[in-house]
Amino acid sequence: MGGTLGPVLERAQLPVSEWGNPPKNPETRSIRLEFALLLAPVLFAIGGTFIWLASPLFAHPGGLAADGCHNDRKNGGRHCHRGSSAGQSKSAPSNRAVYYPNCAAARAAGAAPIYSGQPGYGKHLDRDGDGKACE
């Protein structure tokens, strides 16, 4: 072994050559058990922390618009995650006669591009925020 680890390993209670064998000394067994019982909660805490920190990363696949909303394919309408409308699912706005869930629908209706103030305009359709949706 290396010059620095040699003396340390020679003084160890269980020589490296016997690490794979079960200890014959009951005191050594209790030290191993104590080490395992102390190490297990630490490993669980570290693992739990990583899972807790990483869980928001897997909570949503992404694709949010600037307003924090996206089209809810499962239930229809729009679904928001942040901002003033977070947690609400909104269908067609009640104050507008026309609603397009996406630019493909607006183009299919022959309405694209849609300018701010026109029926059917929505911030979710205006990606760059210049007042001209579905450019």
Automatic annotation (TrEMBL):
Positions of the UniProt region annotated as Disordered: 68-95, 113-135
Pfam families noted in UniProt: Excalibur
Keywords: Membrane, Transmembrane, Transmembrane helix
Compositionally biased spans, kind Polar residues: 85-94
Keyword Transmembrane carried by entry: yes
Coiled-coil region(s): none
Residue spans crossing the bilayer: 35-54
Domain of life assignment: Bacteria
Extent of Basic and acidic residues compositional bias: 123-135
Domain Excalibur calcium-binding: 99-135
Matches recorded under NCBIfam families: YHYH_alt
Name listed for the protein in its UniProt record: YHYH domain-containing protein
